[in-house]
């Protein structure tokens, strides 16, 4: 019975680690070439009688804050992408639940993104690691010129892509949206920062531009203050139905370090009776910050920034639970990025005012060697970024059936040529069965629950019909692994065979074993298993593998799990099995 995905598949993890290692080797070789070339160039420059340095315009304070701040954040985000469950877990556990209550048009955008990712999950996950690490390093190293501005635009472009297809437009269209829980989305602030870094530095010195930014920011803060203050949205009330206690309870139940869990338990207790205190603090601070930026006065903006940053840190700890400790954290959430944006807006206004007062732009001196090293570093960081960006661009055009179609029809075949993980179990007669002993045999491997009365029965019948169409060839074996940890005896397997008319089928093996043995096979083949309420049938992924006579997996797909053996869809499923077996037998 379908319904559970194993995001910790050892098979997928191994493929992910292999891809990362191969890409790391490519990067290391390229870095070595860049290092050798840059050493030669720098030595030639040093031997020439050239001026010792350059007088360059000072980088605007707002640009420096955003460039360095978001550079560090991108590096952290890239490192978080190294979690082994990312290839399958990111779209399944993070992206899809985000859009669960979204309008249809928003959900369709998210589905488009997850489909593209799931067509090639290992490639997508490894590419994201290098793309985000490269972006972070690029921003940190390149401090001026076209290379630095290009880093800003690249950052904004990738962040916009994530905000639309991975962040469901920051949940702005899913009530009740709240500044405290992350609206308008963490990566929205990455987009703003990237645009600011990509703009000509002189634009950041203009007082008219800084005034426009302050007013837009002030209106945005006022909007979220009004939303937070609006009654009936659950943020004023406590008890079990209150927004804050409910969030704290959910966060506190997630596996995480003891100190952060204790903070969540305290916050749940506090807000159960006093949610109004915390919500008042949020509303007042957002309103004060909005007033400061709408006033156009730098001194008031400074105080608005101070209280906003302080509240952001408090909310990051209490409501957003540090963002990375619980579950599958992929970024720092919205509070830290938004604090950088608000701080940057204040520096923008302050800097623009000082330029007007001084009537000149300060300059700094940078040595030729430092400038050359920054340029070389920018090239190296850009190369790391491209190692991720190029595959990510190709994912949209690489062949493969979309994930939703594959789940619905069983037609999403992934062609492979990789060794099948070995295992030893017992069949329905109690006889030992070892995969590696099946010499010169083509094997169709599936996972079936012996007490399932719906989809698993259909799948078994499809296997039988496929065997008949293949002439009941003794060199083609149909092997099913027990997918229920509660019913593991050979007698249960035999009862399933008798009920389905499979007991006289010589090419059919229904394998079982101890719970530990079965779990090892499930993990090796990426099959998630979960007991359903009532202790009967188990939910499990409907994976099918074709293994050739050399012991290599040649194809895998998700089995059809609906309808009956006489439906058009099941006929297509049988044809798919026959086709892939014939290809593997050549």
TrEMBL record:
Keywords: Copper, Membrane, Transmembrane, Transmembrane helix. Residues 414-579 form the Thioredoxin domain. Pfam families: SCO1-SenC. Signal peptide: none annotated. The chain crosses the membrane at residues 20-43, 64-82, 122-141, 153-175, 181-199, 211-230, 276-294, 306-326, 375-398. Belongs to the SCO1/2 family. This is Unannotated protein. The lineage of its organism: unclassified sequences, metagenomes, ecological metagenomes.
